[in-house]
């Protein structure tokens, strides 16, 4: 995890120089690293939640720009990810939610626009269900959490997160992106190490049917919801997008951009920033 760990620390130094606070919050699950940026604008606070085997570093370019419009921007590293410490307990999905919700309950002083990618999108949706008074709106990019009913498809989906060798790492990068970026070969060894991280393995190996969303769970969500699902996303099965289209509230806006895979925040940071900025403007 050498290269990506260095990137996390370099990003931290860069953000701190720009006035972003980097600190830790103790939770019942572990010590969680938080970026907290006081913004220059008056718009709704923004929260960023990253996906599995990732970190808040992936949102750094958007964080640095969106703080000009928002009055506060927060980005979290999940336990065992990024700069956060290893969890004190086995990191099942419900314990991950416990840690993230503990931080947000403590830190948010006003309803926020919560932006989540992949597993972070599932956590954002769950937080909106449990704490609707704290969520002004949702921007979800390829959110996880939808059930995969077909056993063979479910097996292929979960097997895709088993990265045993460099071939697996390269294949995952190809599924993750519309086109593998130039730095793909550089991060492939770190990707293999990241997916062997005990926290990552614990989440993946503890997933059970009860962790997935049920069809009726979203009926009470009244806040604006924007879902981005890249046409080239090959990480999460297409049936999951179908589930969200069928069961998220009718006011949900769906976008399926061409030339984008699972991570629009890294594949097209400018377009991603513009999307978050538009969502903020609608709330204001």
TrEMBL record:
Entry keyword annotation includes Repeat: no
Pfam families per UniProt: Abhydrolase_6 (PF12697)
Keyword presence, Phosphoprotein: no
Top-level taxonomic group: Bacteria
Boundaries of every AB hydrolase-1 domain copy: 46-274
Protein name in UniProt: Alpha/beta fold hydrolase
One GO MF term: hydrolase activity
Xref: SUPFAM superfamilies: alpha/beta-Hydrolases (SSF53474)
Keywords: Hydrolase
């Amino acid at each position: 995890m050498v290269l990506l760990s260095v990137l996390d620390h370099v990003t931290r130094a860069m953000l701190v120089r720009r006035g972003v606070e980097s600190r830790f919050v103790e939770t019942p699950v572990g010590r969680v690293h938080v970026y907290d940026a006081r913004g220059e604008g008056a718009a709704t606070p923004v929260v960023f939640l990253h996906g599995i085997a990732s970190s808040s570093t992936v949102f750094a370019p958007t964080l640095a720009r969106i703080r000009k419009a928002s009055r506060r921007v927060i980005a979290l590293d999940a336990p065992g990810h990024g700069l956060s410490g290893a969890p004190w307990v086995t990191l099942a999905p419900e314990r991950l939610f416990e840690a993230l919700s503990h931080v947000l309950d403590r830190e948010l002083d006003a309803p926020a626009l919560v932006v989540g990618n992949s597993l972070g999108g599932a956590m954002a949706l769950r937080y909106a269900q449990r704490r609707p008074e704290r969520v002004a709106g949702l921007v979800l990019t390829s959110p996880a959490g939808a059930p995969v009913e077909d056993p063979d498809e479910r097996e292929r989906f979960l097997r895709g997160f088993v990265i045993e060798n460099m071939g697996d790492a390269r294949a995952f990068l190809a599924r993750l992106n519309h086109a593998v970026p130039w730095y793909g070969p550089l991060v492939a060894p770190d990707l293999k190490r990241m997916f062997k991280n005990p926290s990552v393995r614990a989440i993946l190996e503890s997933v059970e049917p009860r962790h997935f969303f049920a069809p009726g769970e979203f009926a009470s969500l009244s806040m604006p919801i924007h879902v981005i699902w890249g046409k080239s996303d090959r990480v999460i099965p297409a049936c999951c997008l179908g589930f969200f289209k069928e069961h998220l509230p009718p006011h949900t806006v769906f976008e399926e951009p061409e030339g984008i895979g699972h991570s629009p925040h890294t594949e097209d940071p400018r377009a991603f920033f513009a999307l978050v900025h538009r969502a903020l403007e609608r709330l204001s």
